[in-house]
Design brief:
574 residues, 7-stranded mixed sheet, alpha/beta, 16% strand
């Protein structure tokens, strides 16, 4: 594990497959489903060529469109900005193509096995991401309350950090069956996964991350909780997640989502663009050489959607920004769900009222980043007085919170992520211009590294993003608050529509905010595959019996459903 606090929290690794984002809410093996030689299924020949609207050209939308095309359907992708969504890579003018700033997703755990299926298919390369104290990071500085500690390994930090790591390990073992769950996930032991998780959900649904820590005797010390929040595990401090549901955090640690991250060489934005251009090996109906680009006029998606409404007998009618109106027998909405509340004029008949409530209650995290290009990775220069690296990956309680140093070739340009923040820390940056943000960050770094002049190495304009201010996103990623499990259950399970009244069928939700693992590209892929299964079923198709899809396994694997009323209650809905 690449932990910012010492002492790994992995369970003993048994023989078998590596950990994967398998469960715990819906323990379906999406990677096996994708890899099966039988493919994802078929639709009847009479519906071959039928158009399906795919709203949103992020990773989830492009995966959805790619797999629908392989089935012989004709996806029509709508995108208001540009293919990629939050896989947004910035290329600096005049610098090599692999010297980039990842404005959105920038690090991917190997446990994202479905995501890596597509990374491999498109021929992309990955490299270890320099997280705090990871083997890919030459050195890390932890700077808290004006005191800095330099470390190459976790053991180099003061003893209190080891105490915090042990407290977290103990808390997980005693209160969340951590070792047993991780072993069950690695072994794909569905019965054990569901037994453990289904006991935890009703007990912890109303609990915050911080409350979970406070309830543990191992974290009776406020100072330990404070250090844990500021330094955290894996990617850095987690105090911005303290108000969120502990179930969200357990999903991350159970599935190794915060471990051994890798970055995509040349940028994550290549993945959806390569899928857009890729010609599949197996393709129903369409002639050889067909790809998503060739199915769209001028090789580009349709403009963004401005209106969605139902039309008889049970269609979804889409109006786009050009004024063009098109009607579809099925549609998949993959954009951020709040777009349905504010940016797109919607017919209330699109979803049942409980689903509208779930969309409205979705909680998004704010997130900001600032990058600067530099002439070379000067941070690797040894300090003549101490022999230490001139500068290190930095975790701090100052404004930048996390500073990442990206590049290790002394003869090539490099990039610094001056700051990566979430939630309240991100909102502190919101009123500031990019130049003001850089000035505040450089001042903070001068306090930590008084002899280092970062500014003289900067070779180009800084770039920044605050995802909460992006009009087509309004937030970085979903993070459930306590009590939100029921809302997430409604959104995730929406792809299985047999129990819905017929008037609500045919429109499917996908995207990482629909998934149980929001904030990770794996969730975008998994929900795309769910939606593909739903469209296939909607048009009378089916999975191959040798490779049942997520809906075929739903009765066995369905997430635990919590009641809205206590079993003893006499209340009825009005």
């Amino acid at each position: 594990m690449t932990s910012a606090v010492p002492a790994a929290i992995h369970a003993e690794e048994p023989a078998g497959r590596p950990i994967t984002m398998f469960g715990p809410d819906f323990p379906f093996a999406y990677d096996d489903y994708l890899a099966h030689p039988a493919g994802l299924g078929t639709v009847p020949e009479q519906v071959h060529g039928t158009e399906v609207a795919v709203i949103g050209g992020g990773l989830s939308g492009i995966v959805t469109a790619y797999e629908l095309m392989k089935l012989g359907l004709r996806p029509v992708v709508y995108e208001i900005d540009g293919i990629g969504g939050r896989l947004r890579t910035h290329h600096f003018p005049g610098l090599p193509d692999d010297v980039v700033a990842e404005m959105g997703a920038m690090r991917f755990p190997p446990s994202s096995t479905s995501l890596f299926h597509y990374i491999t298919k498109t021929g992309l390369e990955t490299t270890p991401f320099p997280n705090p104290l990871s083997p890919a990071t030459p050195s890390t500085v932890v700077d808290l309350k004006g005191q800095s500690h330099y470390a190459r390994t976790p053991e180099d930090l003061p003893d209190v950090y080891g105490e915090v790591a042990k407290a977290w390990q103990r808390t997980l073992d005693e209160n969340a069956s951590f070792a047993e769950m991780q072993t069950a996930i690695r072994n794909r032991d569905v019965a054990t996964v569901k037994k453990i998780w289904n006991e935890l959900v009703p007990r912890l649904d109303n609990q915050t991350f911080y409350g979970f820590l406070c309830d543990s005797p191992a974290f009776s010390s406020f100072r330990h909780r404070e250090i844990f929040g500021q330094v955290g595990f894996g990617t850095g401090g987690w105090d911005t997640d303290f108000p969120n549901s502990i179930l969200e955090i357990l999903r991350v640690v159970y599935t190794g989502a915060d471990d051994e991250h890798r970055s995509i060489v040349g940028g994550s934005g290549q993945l959806p663009r390569r899928l857009w251009e890729r010609v599949p090996e197996r393709l129903a109906h369409w002639p050889s050489g067909t790809n998503l680009a060739s199915l769209h006029e001028n090789g580009q998606p349709r403009p963004g959607v401005t209106r969605l409404h139902r039309t008889a007998p049970n269609n979804v009618t889409v109006t786009d920004a050009s004024g063009h109106i098109r009607t579809f027998g099925a549609a998949v909405f993959t954009a951020q769900s709040w777009m349905l509340l504010s940016k797109i004029e919607c017919d209330e008949a699109l979803f049942p009222i409980d689903h509208w409530t779930a969309i409205e209650r979705t909680h998004y995290m704010a997130s900001s980043k600032v990058f600067v290009p530099v002439d070379r990775p000067f941070w690797l220069d040894p300090d003549p007085a101490t022999g230490r690296d001139t500068m290190s990956m930095t975790l701090t309680d100052r404004m930048p919170r996390g500073t990442y140093l990206l590049g290790d070739d002394p003869d090539r340009p490099a990039v610094i992520c001056l700051s990566y923040t979430w939630a309240d820390d991100s909102l502190k940056w919101l009123p500031l211009s990019v130049s003001d943000r850089v000035e505040v960050m450089l001042q903070s770094l001068r306090e930590i590294y008084p002899g280092v002049d970062v500014r003289r190495h900067i070779t180009g304009d800084p770039v920044t993003v605050s995802w909460e201010a992006e009009p087509h996103f309004m937030g970085a990623f979903k993070a459930n608050l306590p009590g939100h499990y029921r809302y997430q259950h409604r959104l995730f399970t929406h792809f299985v529509q047999d129990s819905l009244p017929e008037r609500y069928r045919g429109l499917f939700l996908a995207g990482d905010d629909i998934s149980w693992t929001a904030g990770w590209a794996e969730g975008a892929v998994q929900t795309a595959l769910n939606a593909v299964w739903g469209v296939q079923r909607h048009f009378g198709g089916a999975s191959d019996p040798a490779n049942p899809g997520p809906g075929d396994r739903f009765a066995d694997l369905a997430p635990l459903e919590l009641p809205d009323w206590p079993e003893s209650s006499t209340h009825t809905a009005r």
